[in-house]
Amino acid sequence: MQPTILIVITKADVGGAQVHCLDIIKGLRLRYRFVLLCGEDDFLTQAARQLGIEVIVMPSLVRRLSPSKDLAAYRDLKKHISRIKPDLIHGHSSKAGIIARLAAKRSATPAMFTAHGWAFTQGAPLKRRLIGLVSEWVMGRFSKFIVVVSTYDYELARRFFIAPKKRLRCILNGVQGTQKRSKHQNRVPHIINIGRLTRVKNQTLLLEALAQVSSPFTLSIIGSGHLQPQIEDQIKQLGLSKKVTLLPGLNNASSCLADSDLFVLSSKYEGLPLSALEAMSASLPVVSTNVGGVGDAVVDGETGFLVVKDNATVLAEKLEILLQSRDLRQQMGEAGYRKYQTDFTVERMVTELAKVYDEVFS
Question: pLDDT tens digits, residue range 267-276?
């Protein structure tokens, strides 16, 4: 009989953690029986149903801190665990990871947690960092294993004694590569940025940098979020309306990569962003702020450039270098594609995770 794994995550919209969970289910569903529990019904739950996976939508499981709902989520989850009787509970994202491990402890069920970037990472708000650090330090004692998706997060976990080394596993993110690769056509270079329009993704910094660039370019920002009105105003104020296009929605973002020449991330903090890995699979050079696990993917000066965060001038300088040289864009893009094939395929990721699952069951 297949072991049953209950995956618990708050959000179900298109995002890195959600795509990660879906890739796990796709890659390992013939080996294990998965049940997916989410706080909402969206992209992830819909895709899981199409694969024949049992899906539970539990509205009490919300992302924001809410003592009343968090207590309700804990109680609701215990009931589902009692019915499903999973062999393992696997939490993803901070809130789901905490509630999942508490309910698992109460139910005497093995639990593990995947951190898609720690809540106490550098760049996060101070209050969140303090709460996150204390919570994860306590919850680490309730975890059979903790999986991190970048070497940066592994070192962070070791530095703050989140769990003993024997219970920490570093499994670098992997993605299903794009079907097409950029041809780096002889034209005005097209830049692409993919991510929610939020403070964390910091598209405002990218626009400030591009306002300092003299080379021709066009830019597509693919995503939606609460900062959209502010970003729209900034585009107008900087005189970039003819060069910059906002495209809401992330569902088909990867299909736009092959039609681009350069990928940019201007985030304040990250785990190991799947969007950068997808860009590498499309043979695009990546220019990114040097935050979180981005350095696992982007080799500075070889597959793209890493720049200090919150510095528009330095970001503009690196963009200018690539905008001026089609040959360099192509060279770095090919190097990035080779690194993707070696280190960041989804097949490699799910194979390594299956070994961790088997350690639990053995």
Answer: 999 999 999 9
